[in-house]
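Batch manifest line 314
LIGAND: adenosine-5'-triphosphate
JOB: complex structure
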Amino acid sequence: MERPLAIRARGITKTFGDVIALDGIDLDMAEGRIHGLVGPNGAGKTTLLGLLLGLAAPDEGTLEILGSPVGRTLETPDGVTGFVDGPGLYPSLSAEQNLAALAALRGRDADMSSVADVLAQVGLSDVAGDRVRGFSLGMRQRLGLAAALLAKPRLLVLDEPANGLDPAGKKHVHRVLNRLADEGATVVLSSHRMDDVEALCTEVTIVAAGRVVFTGPRTKLSAETGELDYRLRTSDPGAARELATETAGVRVVEESEDVARDDAELLVVRASVPALDTLVAGLARAGIAVRELAPVTSPLEAAFLALTDQESAR
Ligand SMILES: Nc1ncnc2c1ncn2[C@@H]1O[C@H](COP(=O)(O)OP(=O)(O)OP(=O)(O)O)[C@@H](O)[C@H]1O
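JOB STATUS: finished
ARTIFACT:
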C-alpha cells in the first residue's frame, strides 16, 4: 500500500528580487521516511526547508503539508518542527532551561522528565545544567534537535543537522532520526555530506538552480549510475593490473584525483557493475585475493555531480 504523503509540492516558486531561489518545484515526500535534500551551494535547499517550516510562503504553486494545504500566510500544521540556519537558543540559559523555555513558548508547561528524556536521546545529559554560551557547534545542533523532539514532531525539518558533530554525536543524531521515522514521523534534512545521506536517507531529492533534478529512492539513483571508479586492492597488484587491462569494459585509471598517489599497491579501475563482476570472477580464477573493493566516490556523490553538472550546463 502506498504511504500517505507528508509533503506534496506542485510548481513551487520563490524569488528574492531578481534571484529565482525555487523555480517550479514538484515534490512528493512519503510519511515515515528520512528524506535527504542535496544540491550545490545556492541551489535552494534552505529556501525550500524554510517554506516547509512556514518561515516564508511560496510566491506561486501549491504546498500540502501533512495533508493540509498551506496558504499564503506563514503557518504550518501542528506537528511540524525543526530549524534552518542553526537552532535558536538562549546563550545565557542552561540546556534544560532552554528546553523548558521553548516548551513554555509553545504553550506547554515544561515537563522536566520529558526534558531529561530528550537530552538523554541526543547525548547531552551530562551538560544539562551548563550554559549554552559555552556549547560547541555540535552541542548546539544536538540541543536544537532535542528541542524539536520535545514538540513530538510528525514532520521534522533540519538544515545541515550533522554540522559540527563528532562521530559520537553523529551516532546519537542518526539513532534519534531513525527512531522517529520508525515511529511514523517524516524527516527532511539537507546535507552536503553524501556519506551521511547514504547512511540515513532512504529517499533523496537533488536540487540544482532551484529545480528538482532527481527525487526518489536512493537505491534507484545508485542503479542509474553507469560507470564508477573503484579502489581495488589485491594480493598481487601487478597481475591484477594486467587482468583489469584485459577485461572488456574495465579501464585502469592511472591518475585519480581522489586517491593518494603514493599508494602503489592500490589500483583504480573504471567499470560498470557487470564489467566489474567479470573482473572479480577473473581475479578469483587466477588465485588473486581481493582485499578491498569500493567506489572511490559513492554512487550518490557520482550521481550528484553528474546531475548537477548537467543542470548547470543547460
Ligand atoms: N533572504 C534572501 N534574500 C535574497 N536572496 C536570498 C535569500 N535567501 C536565499 N537567497 C538566494 O536564493 C538562492 C538559494 O539560496 P538557499 O540558501 O536556499 O540555497 P542553499 O541550497 O541552501 O545553499 P547552501 O548550500 O549554500 O546553504 C541563492 O541564490 C541565495 O543567494
